[in-house]
Design brief:
Distance between the termini: 47 Å
Largest sheet: 5 strands, parallel
Oligomer: single chain
Shape: globular
Order of helices and strands: HHHEHHEHHEEHEEHE
Strand order of the largest sheet: 1-7-6-2-3
Strand content: 5-15%
Structural class: alpha/beta
Number of domains: 2
CATH topology of the largest domain: Rossmann fold
């Protein structure tokens, strides 16, 4: 497996050479100044809905300005296994383009900037003391099809930024679940039931874990991963994602 790791390092180096950071906007391809953070131009940055303080204390979803309590209705009515989840940008057509370019158009260099954005969000939220980072795993069949796990690449860069070990082996996906985006909340929960398994508990026992993914939708994936990690001995699990949707009631 070591040769694959070396190969991916060469690929990342090659992509960084072709797409040098902070030269072109990752959204519109416009030329940008070298000091523009996240390699996003001012115009696109102004259109992205970066999340601030008005988010749910538990799941991290955006709340309306006039919403008076600190938890969304979902988190008031339903218990979550994870301690707290945060996200960075509201999921809409613009942020969706970033994620799709990374996942389906294999623009792996975007993962570095996604990690930058997550890192800054964690710092401003005061969430930075973890023992390990674990990316939400892909099933091996889906990973073969896509050739990489975007959460793992984001986690790799985030781990370097935070000086925290990333673990891609402790938690695996044993159930090749159907695509989630057309399912209801309840169907998502049923679809993901028993989908994940800890295969090396020694890696996670008594550890505070940061679970990483690209998108937080209903939270079903994060909850199922967390449930398995806690049952196998993890101390606490926190969640960080690049984007999250807004609850619709």
């Amino acid at each position: 497996m070591r040769y694959k790791k070396i190969l991916y390092e060469y690929i990342d180096t090659f992509l960084n050479f072709i797409y040098p950071r902070n030269i072109y906007c990752i959204l519109c391809d416009a030329s940008i100044d070298r000091d523009e953070v996240y390699s996003i131009c001012k115009d696109c940055k102004g259109k992205l809905r970066f999340l601030g303080e008005k988010t749910c204390d538990i799941c991290g979803k955006p709340l309306d300005e006039l919403y008076l309590v600190e938890r969304c209705l979902d988190c008031i009515n339903n218990a979550n296994y994870y301690e707290k989840a945060i996200s960075c940008i509201e999921y809409d057509d613009l942020s969706k383009k970033i994620i799709y370019d990374l996942k389906y158009y294999k623009k792996r260099y975007i993962s570095y900037h996604a990690a930058q954005i997550i890192y800054d969000r964690l710092m401003e939220s005061g969430m930075y003391e973890f023992d390990i980072i674990i990316p939400v795993p892909l099933h091996k069949a889906k990973k073969r099809e896509r050739t990489f796990n975007q959460a793992s690449i984001i986690g790799k860069y985030l781990g370097k930024m935070m000086d925290i070990e990333i673990d891609n082996k402790a938690l695996i996906r044993v159930k090749n679940t159907t695509v989630q985006n057309q399912l209801t909340k309840e169907e998502r929960r049923e679809n993901l039931e028993n989908a994940f398994e800890v295969i090396d508990a020694d890696r996670i026992i008594n550890k505070d874990i940061l679970l990483i993914d690209d998108v937080f939708t209903t939270g079903a994936t994060a909850n199922e991963c967390t449930k398995e990690l806690l049952e196998k001995g993890a101390l606490n699990v926190y969640v960080a994602t690049f984007a999250t949707g807004r609850n619709v009631y």
